[in-house]
Amino acid sequence: MKTGIANVPLHGGHCPPWLFEKMKQLGALIVEVIVMEYGPAEVLKRLSDPVWFQAFGSVLGFDWHSSGLTTVVCGALKEGLQNLQGELGLFFAGGKGKASRKTPTEIAEAGEKYGLSNDLAGLQRTSRLVAKVDSAAVQDGYELYHHFFIFDSSGNWAVVQQGMNGSTRYARRYHWLSETVQSFVIDPHQAVCGFPEQNVLNLVYLDNEATRKASVELCREKPELVLKVMKSASLNAPGPKQEPSVQQQLNLFSNEPFHGSLNEPALQPGGLSPSPRQMTMPASHPIPSVRYLDKILYRLYEKPPENYEKLLETPGVGPSTLRALAMVAEVTHGAKPSFHDPVRYTFAHGGKDGYPFPVQRQDLTHSLQVLRTAITKAKIGEMEKLEALRKLGKQEEWLYSS
């Protein structure tokens, strides 16, 4: 589903301290209401919904135009709910920049502090794997700088992470939800939102199963054979003064006939033997450094991964390694990758610079008072205000559906 077309630009400046304080308070109260009404798992579902997340940031008073909405909203939730995590059964880890690298430690600390029986090691592994998918397996030109991990006492989790394109200065946000992840390497995202790009090497796209299997198989072959193809591609890559196609040996690892994206053999004049088939390396395949690959390929050969998920988890395997294996898999196995951008949502936004209008402090303060009163009374059994908010929500839903 698309909700409109727009980009998410990087805005300068910082969130004003007074606004961040209001965001912390209002965000915490909204989450409290959701947990009281529906349970902590519902908060995970909503944060993994990009439309709800964007609306949530707008309600809190931040830019609905800036990439900063992601980092500031997540930061406000983490700080605003810091002392309520045990009570709500909802826990927050990670954040922007250096904070993102503390995620595994913060998961462990939450487990120790609140005596959680969750598989904390499994949650730590999930955090690392989710980050690896969006930084290495989805090669879209956006470098991750924000990783926010949320989980509940039952082991359910959600992730909101964001990347930045250094050239265009636009951001892309990735949403994950444990409930919908069947495989970390087959269309695992709940949603990806941003500006659609061309030639995105999305190695977790459903149709790239052949590339994934061939890449794992290549890890079991002698690195010299893989490097031979890589060096040939490097020497014969298309350039201003070179022919656009190169000859390749196609039966390095298999005696099966090759069925790839190659030109069919052409008969020589007089019906002589056909000339070798030729392959054109697409421009969307940047060729990784052979010197670097030599080291990582030997490491993979010594301990081959069982599957593509394990390949992703191998230390040192990054975008260049996965791209190289995909390229060699295309040459040797005919596993031509599909270039499919996972973006499914784009937004129209506004900004903290006063567009389309400045944040109204009185409105924020009033909302805080209403929610605080509703929660306080609900805790002592008086549900009138929460019931009124519930009816208001149903009325709004009816208006939008009619």
Q: Can you characterise this structure?
A:
- With 402 residues, this protein is an alpha+beta fold.
- It folds into two domains: 17-201 and 343-359, no CATH class; 207-333, no CATH class.
- 45% of the residues lie in helices and 11% in strands.
- The chain is built from 14 helices and nine strands.
- The chain has helices spanning 17-38, 40-47, 50-59, 68-80, 85-88, 103-114, 120-137, 209-218, 223-235, 290-302, 308-313, 319-333, 361-379, 384-401, and strands spanning 90-96, 138-139, 143-152, 157-165, 170-177, 191-193, 201-202, 246-247, 278-279.
- The strands form three sheets. The chain has a five-stranded antiparallel β-sheet with strand order 1-3-4-5-6, sandwiched between helices. It has a two-stranded antiparallel sheet with strand order 2-7. A two-stranded antiparallel sheet has the order 8-9.
- Helix 1 crosses helix 4 (68-80) and helix 9 (223-235) packs antiparallel against helix 10 (290-302).
- It is elongated, with a radius of gyration of 25 Å.
- It starts with 16 loop residues before the first helix and ends with a helix.
- Mean pLDDT is 77; it is low at 1-11, 238-284 and 348-360.
